[in-house]
Amino acid sequence: MDRRSFLLSTTTLALSQIIIGCETKQAPLNIQLLKNSIPGQVVNQFRKTVESGGNLKFTPIDQIEELFKLLQTWQKPPTNKNQKSLPANLVTLGDYWLQAAINQKLIQPLSTEKIQNLAKLDEKWRQLVKHDQEGKIWGIPYRWGNTVIVYNQEKFEKLGWKPRDWSDLWRSELENRISLLNHPREVIGLVLKKLGKSYNTENINQISSLESELQALNKQVKFYDSTKYLEPLIIGDTWLAVGWSNDIIPMISRYQKFTAVVPQSGTAIWADLWVSPTGVSNDTLAYQWLDFCLQPNTSGQIALLTKSNSPIGNNIAIRDIQKPLQNLLLNNSEIFAKSEFLLPLRPEVTQEYEDLFMKMKKS
C-alpha cells in the first residue's frame, strides 16, 4: 500500500470498475490507469465529447508498480514478434516514480502547446512535472493527497486538546500511543518539518538536534508499519496515527470516532499523474483527454468521487464534501504552500536516511 516504494503496492478506494472499449483492434485512445483513480462517470462524459467515443479503451490496473513494469516491458524488444504488446497512449504513474521513469527513458515529454488548460496548474505542479532545465513537461497531475494525522476523538476529548501539527506528537500524553509509517523519508521528514526544514533535506547529518528529536519521538511510538498502521488505532492500542490520506479517508468514513487533520506547518504530498510511454505517437485525442481532466468541473468531479484532492484550486464547494472529510479534501492554500513532494535523493543520502531511521527505532 506504500505509494512511495518500488516493492509495495498502492491502496485505492473501492469504486466501480470502469470501462472497456473495443477489444478487436487497437483503439484510437488506449489508457492504462490506476484502478479506481478515475470514476466511470468521468469516462462516460468524455466518450460523449468525441466522435470515436465508443471505441476508446480504458483499462484499470490494480497497482502503480504494475503500471511501472508495463512501461518497462514496452521498451524491451519483443521475445515473440507475433505477441508484441502495444503500449498505451497514456498511463497513470505516481509522482514518486516519475524521475525513475525519466531516467530509464520509459516516458516522453508532452507537447505543452496542445494542453490548453495547463495554465490552470500553479507553479508547484509545474515544478513537479518538469524535472529538467529545459522546461519539458513529463506528466499531468489529475488527483493528489497528503500525509496526515488521524486520531481517536474520544481519547482526545478526555485530554482536552486536539492534534493540529507535527509538534503535538511529542506531547507526554501520547507516550506509547502512536502508530507511524515504517518509512524513513516520511518519519524523518515530519521531524525535519517540525524543525522548520524540508522533507528533501540532504545534509541531515549536519542537523544537530535531529537525532535527539527522533529518539524522543520513538518513545511515543507503539507501532511502525506501512500497511497495517491503522489497525492498532481501530482496536484502541494507539490513539493517533500518521498515514496517507487515501488509506485514512475510507476509515474515517466508516468510523465516526476518528477524525484527521493536515498538519499546519505543511506535510508530504502524493499525486497521480498521466504520462506518455516513450515512442507512442499521441494524436489530438490523447491531448483532448488531458485537457478534459484539467477542466475545473472534471477535476472537481474526479476529486469528489475518488475522495482525493484536485490540482485545480477552488473548484469544489464545501457543501459537496462530507463533513468528516472536509479537513482533508478542502484545499488550504497556506498549508499547501508549506507542503512538499518527496523528491528522489542521491543513493548515498537515501542510505543516510535509512541508517538514521534504523538507529531511531533501536533507541
TrEMBL record:
InterPro entries: Sperm_putr-bd (IPR001188)
Compartments, record wording: Periplasm
Residue stretches in coiled coil: 200-227
Pfam families the record matches: SBP_bac_6 (PF13343)
Signal peptide segment: none
Chief localisation class: periplasm
UniProt keyword terms in alphabetical order: Coiled coil, Periplasm, Signal, Transport
Protein name: Extracellular solute-binding protein
